[in-house]
Amino acid sequence: MSMQAMITFASMNLKKVANWTWQGPVFFINRVNTSKKPKKGPE
User: Domain of life here (predicted)?
Assistant: First the structure.
């Protein structure tokens, strides 16, 4: 992986963490809960 790609991904992750921190722990918990997709059973 090139250095530019690693720096880009690192900065994107820092931006996510900064947004989650700024919006508070409730937003972070809701974000984690909504990111899990429910498993579908056989139809």
Answer: Bacteria
